[in-house]
Amino acid sequence: MSGAPESGPAALEAAGARLKAAGLRITRPRMAILSELIRRRAPASIEQIHRAIRSGACDLVTVYRCMEAFEGIALVRRALSRGGTWLYAIDLGGRPRYHVVCRKTGRVDEVDAESAAAVHQALQAVEEKLRARGYTATGHFAEFFGTAPGDQA
Fold it and tell me: Are the beta carbons of 34 and 115 closer than 8 angstroms?
């Protein structure tokens, strides 16, 4: 799990390699979307990604289609849902990442690495049990909510 690049040109190169390995072409719109996902520290909606990409790089429909393709090859994952809108994060096979959403402000913070690893290990164990029962294409989605320390007043 560790050792995967998490940012910068090495991360973009790793993402491009994942596209190629899955038989997907490397196009300018795909690389722009991946670059934006890598740049972000927090999960983002498709609309946020589209707005952040250089004007004219691709249209909103292209972002939706690319995100569907990326999710299909496990290059991105749905990180959480805010008000019915999915937020996405890049997944280059590095350390597991989970997020906590402040109930009061909607701010998204990353769960610390030790807690994220413990959650991931527990969820992987559940997935293994499901596979033993015959389930295929297993996965998980976890959201955490709370009121952030500075927002409790």
Answer: no
Residue found by looking up tokens 């498709």 in the block: 46
pLDDT tens digit sequence for 8-49: 788 899 999 999 999 999 999 999 999 999 998 778 899 999
Task: Decide: helix, strand or coil at residue 78.
Answer: strand
Rg value, the chain, Cα: 16
Model pTM score: 0.75
Domains and CATH numbers, the chain: 1-94 (1.10.10.10), 96-153 (3.30.1490.190)
